Amino acid sequence: MITRIPSSLRLAIQQLCSLAVVLFALVGCEVDNYMDPSKTGYFEFAPTTIPVLERIDVIEEAELPFAEITQPTAEDLIPQSMEYRLAPSDVVRVEIYELLESNMNDISVLIVDQAGQIRIKTLGNIPAAGLTLEELKREIVNRVKATIDEPLVSVSLEQGRAYEYTIYGAVNGTGVYSISRDDFRVMDALALSGGTIASTMNIYVIRELPLTDLVKPEYNRGANRSPQGSAATQPRAPEPEPDRDNAIDIESLIQNLENAGGTSGRSSSPGMVSQDSQQMVDLDDVDSDPASSASAAPATQDGFRSAPGSGSTQSGGYRFDQEQEVWVPVGGGEQMQEMLLPIADDSPKRSFATRIIQVDYQRLARGDSDLNIIVRPGDRLYVEPPLTGVVYIDGEIGRPGVYQLPVSGKLTLSRLVAAAGGFGPIAIPERVDLTRVVGDGREATIRVNLSAIRNRTEPDIYMQPDDHVNIGTNFWAQPLAVVRNGFRASYGFGFLLDRNFGNDVFGPPPTNIGNFR
Fold this sequence. Notes:
The protein has ten helices and 24 strands. It folds into three domains: about 1-60 and about 385-515, Outer membrane lipoprotein wza domain like (Outer membrane lipoprotein wza fold like); about 70-80 and about 165-215 and about 305-385, no CATH class; about 90-160, wza like domain (wza like fold, 2-Layer Sandwich). It is about 15% helix and about 25% strand. The protein is α+β, with helices and mostly antiparallel strands.
């Protein structure tokens, strides 16, 4: 016996089913599409933040920096007194009264050669590099005294190249430029080189201090003088003129010669001149006063050397501890850990102590003057350009192909998929292969879950040049796509009926349409 369902109950069941369908559709608007895995996103009301990976540590080794990158300090903003010191290729003008003829002024325009010397007629080679104009004048006076009792000597700079810096990277005019004043700053250097692109992020100011004579210029080897760019910017006490009335102390003279570092070095006392391996000493002109030697003492003590661009030790700054390989503040205070040079115990001894100052160009361009630091002689300014190159994407993607890295901004994996037309109909975002070059002739592949990235449970990844992204699929992706297509509004799960067989199914078409009498 068949029991019939009352009509009222059937109506109630139909209403409940309709309500269930509506609720099901509404709930489906707030959840990920379970029928189409290629639809990904966060879709939550609560905001969230998550970092973006610059490096994938499981396949990429961390690059050990040769020097820690530091931020600008207060000392980097303070101009220092720029007492010019001669360097090779400088041009000087020397005038000596009655050197060759009576009542005649001998004028010579001389170029400092690569050995740091100038050559004057009848006087021979005279060391000039590393000296101030006044110090060079005293050197020449001491030479001329052998023939002229009270020589009149004038030394002037015709063309100087010692105070220079180098700028390269994302600038219109890379090259070597001169520093024209003591308050010459980073923005001045950028303007002089033609500017940079608006998307530049960082500028790196690189300062170095030689730690061995092997990397110093030939004229400065073995000399107790800080290199250009560090001590050259520090004021030095003037050396007193020789006191000819005092008697010569032979023991002090011998001590001065021993402290000069042998024949390869240059003594700080006036009148002592070194020429290659031979040394010319005029005993009548030697200043044996200990105070004179102390005034020209090098700016080094207790195993420390002046930090490049740190200024005078009297006004603060940093010194480099060669044993600990670290910059330490002058006059006490705590050691700056960010300036520690990561030197391994088994690594060779470094030739340079390097400090790298990172300047945020975007903040600097918007007016943060605390980042507009002083450019010191010998500085290298690297304007970091954006990454250039191409990335490759294929697999189940809308537009597979080769894509350029953008000049402005950075490209992430998620943005690359969006730029390439999005996922294909059978793509599985959990199956994404990323292949990256990790060394010369080596590449590594890692599986990435892009669905988790877009759901904000895993960090996104910045693309690097020559990255290769492959969007994968699986066995169930094709059946799911067939089911999805079955619900299309055009024909659904019905059959396409060829018109040639329509009469067999529906009968011949009516013939009386339009025949009205």
